[in-house]
């Protein structure tokens, strides 16, 4: 499959689902998830003539939880996803408004986005 710069997708690595992203290379294949440190590419389906390293490299953004969410970039914990108005009198809507929050040791953050749970999760994962 042909990938493009800044595209994100999910790959299974060592039995776990990882979010990966195509980013600009700093040097041919340096920093790529599939760089075999011997100059060879370890990604199945690529051969020795991989053009990908000159256009982009693949960065592992992290392991996804059961909801398909990346961990918090500050503390490494997985955030909470909840309907922001659930249980608040007069504010329930059919679509709701979903909030993603993380309360780590040294930070608190709330990321509001989306009328659906999946929209909020997708926005959270794109922030990486």
Architecture overview:
It is a single chain. With 128 residues, this protein is mainly beta. It folds into two domains: 8-63, no CATH class; 80-126, no CATH class. The chain is 11% helix and 28% strand. It contains two helices and six strands, in the order ββαββββα. It has a three-stranded antiparallel sheet with strand order 1-2-3. Strands 4-5-6 form a three-stranded antiparallel sheet, with helices on one face. The two termini are 22 Å apart. Residues 87-93 have low confidence and may be disordered.
Please state roughly what percent of the residues sit in beta strands, choosing from under 5%, 5-15%, 15-25%, 25-35%, 35-45% or over 45%.
25-35%
Shape: elongated
The largest β sheet comes out as: 3 strands, antiparallel
**How many strand elements?**
6
Mean pLDDT: 74
User: How widely separated are the two ends?
Assistant: 22 Å
How many helices? 2
Strand arrangement, major sheet: 1-2-3
Outline of the structure:
The chain is mainly beta and 128 residues long.
SSE layout:
Elements: E1 8-13, E2 16-23, H1 52-55, E3 57-63, E4 80-83, E5 98-103, E6 108-112, H2 117-126
Jot down its keywords.
128 residues, 3-stranded antiparallel sheet, 2 helices, 28% strand
């Amino acid at each position: 499959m042909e990938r493009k710069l800044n595209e994100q997708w999910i790959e299974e690595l060592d039995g776990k689902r990882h979010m990966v992203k195509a980013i600009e290379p700093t040097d041919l294949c340096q920093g790529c998830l599939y760089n075999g440190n011997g100059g060879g590419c370890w990604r199945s389906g690529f051969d020795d003539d991989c053009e990908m390293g000159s256009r982009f490299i693949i960065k592992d953004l992290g392991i996804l939880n059961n909801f398909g969410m990346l961990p918090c970039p500050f503390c490494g914990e997985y955030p909470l996803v909840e309907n922001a108005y659930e249980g608040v009198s007069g504010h329930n809507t059919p679509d709701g408004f979903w909030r993603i929050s993380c309360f780590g040791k040294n930070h608190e953050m709330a990321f509001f986005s989306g009328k659906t749970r999946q929209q909020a999760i997708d926005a959270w994962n794109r922030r990486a």
